[in-house]
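A quick word before the example. In earlier lectures we treated sequence and structure as two separate objects. From today on, think of them as two lines of the same record. Here is Fe2OG dioxygenase domain-containing protein written that way.
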Amino acid sequence: MATVCPVASLHQEANPSRLKVGSVKTLAESSNLTSIPSHYAFTTSASSDQAVHSDHDDSIPVIDFSLFSSSNPDQRRKVVSDLAKACQDWGFFMVINHGVPEGQMKAMVDMLMGFFDLTEEEKREFEGKHVLDGIRWGTSFNTSVDKVFFWRDYLKVRVHPKFHCPSKPEGFSEVLAEYAGVVRKLARGLLKGISESLGLEPGYIDEAMNMDSSLQRLTANLYPPCPQPKLAMGMPPHSDHGLLTILMQNGIGGLQVHHGGKWVKIDPIPNAFLVNTGDHLEIMSNGKYKSVLHRAVVNNKDTRISIILSNGPSLDTVVTPAEQLVDGESNRAMYIGMKYKDFLELHQSSVLDGKSGLERVKI
Ligand SMILES: O=C(O)CCC(=O)C(=O)O
Ligand SMILES: [Fe+2]
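And the structure line, produced from the sequence above:
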């Protein structure tokens, strides 16, 4: 995407592929760091594309999850229609009254902070190579293809259908297994509401996407303080590839969503989840619910951590638009079918660039 234009390509010495890649955490903690190395500097970054706060009359939708189990049919109908509007207008929404205990969310933040606090050597043990490896610790997005590096370290762990977890810090696997389970339940509940909101049977998405063996992956992003936050980028504009992404953070803002032609800052709401619709929901809904570009900016004061569970179809599912949403010429299918696994491999092998993954399956 044009908004990510590397400075480094103008400077031969700043070719990151020839550098040994360490974490940004270690770099940020090195003494006297007052400027960023040139291979982290973007010519066009978030600073030249100023973000705004959302208007009062068009703020990020809030969905009260408890209303899906209301015995009052009017309340249920209302929350399903709010969900439809949120998916159509924003592709992002906050979820409150989701039933995940506050202590469980906090335990995840503490565990992940503990993980990133391990030594570089300890973390290297978890450095994966392939997109489908169970555990992958790393930095930037894909350091073998990124031209300029992102100010971000990450840990990616596949937690379903097969559960993986780093062996450190102690107790991580119990906390993660429990958290992933409750979030999976929440995702399936939301997908039920989304099916209904599309005029499909409530269980349609669950069945068509084989959610009993859905691919669920944890991504924890660590954005340490950056001495020149206007030059660096935490994560460039991209959409998420799964069906639904469920995010929480440590109270420090940084996420921006492309909405109404502008970048809108999303302030964290304590104990709420931020949910967004992914590329495969766009394909399945035949473009009715579009995946939305978002990016993460960095700051020079506080370490930010975002903890994400992406909930996708099972790896072997060939995702196509729902038949009921396609009819002849006026509503023809807009996406070809592709196995989720193949989509992921294509996605990881190239630079993270807007919605380029989805472009490959658009008819
Ligand atoms: O850190 C954030 O707020 C966004 C991260 C993100 O978009 C992702 O990991 O896909
Ligand atoms: Fe994302």
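Notice the following. Residues 1-18 have pLDDT under 50 and may be disordered. We will return to this example when we discuss secondary structure assignment.
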